[in-house]
TrEMBL record:
It holds the Pfam family Jagunal. The gene is Jagn1. Keywords: Endoplasmic reticulum, Membrane, Transmembrane, Transmembrane helix. This is Protein jagunal homolog 1. The keyword Transmembrane applies. GO terms for cellular component: endoplasmic reticulum membrane. The chain crosses the membrane at residues 40-62, 99-118, 138-158.
Length: 183
């Protein structure tokens, strides 16, 4: 072997040690999954900020009622959905399993449950809109129920993928923990 700047061992160019420089697959998986979850968390923050802005504008009457409708009831508990995202981000630096598990449980409670309730709450208004063409709430000229159903669908996908990747990340962390215990 040779030092960084010194002569090399006879008969080698140093490339025959590359097979030892591979990163274990569960470590590669962990980095990839953390990256994907961060993207989903940032997407969730954008959705959350849009809903917060709609709620503030609706309550403070910054725009006329026909431009921005008052929020639906499901939007209030959905504001708590920011907490699981922060727990998820807190779990990443030291691969903290307990924070990640808390994030997954609270994602179901504070994110998915309000979205399901919101879909049920808005269903009669959506039915009325599509059967009779009548909408009573609007967001910038669009039917509020249509806009909010779009938000529900996108948010449900974001949180669903976030839960899926979190589960895979948890499995990856358990794999690395089990390998450390074997040694």
């Amino acid at each position: 072997m040779a030092s960084r700047g010194g002569p090399r061992a006879a008969g080698t160019d140093g490339s025959d040690f590359q097979h030892r420089e591979r990163v274990a697959s569960h470590y590669q998986m962990s980095v990839t999954l953390k990256s994907e979850i961060k993207k989903l968390i940032y997407t969730h923050v954008v959705i959350w900020l849009l809903l917060l802005a709609q709620m503030i504008v609706g309550h403070l009457k910054l725009l006329p009622h026909d431009q921005v409708a008052m929020p639906y009831q499901w939007e209030y508990p959905y504001l708590l959905s920011i907490l699981p995202s922060f727990l998820g981000l807190l779990s990443f630096p030291r691969n903290n399993i307990s924070y990640l598990v808390l994030s997954m449980i609270s994602t179901g409670l504070f994110s998915m449950a309000p979205l399901i309730y919101g879909a049920m709450e808005m269903f009669p208004m959506a039915q009325q809109l599509y059967r009779h063409g009548k909408a009573y709430r609007f967001i910038f000229g669009f039917s509020a129920v249509s806009v909010m159903y779009l938000v529900v669908v996108v948010a449900a996908q974001v949180h669903g993928w976030q839960l899926y990747y979190s589960k895979k990340l948890l499995d990856s962390w358990f794999t690395s923990t089990q390998e450390k215990k074997k040694k």
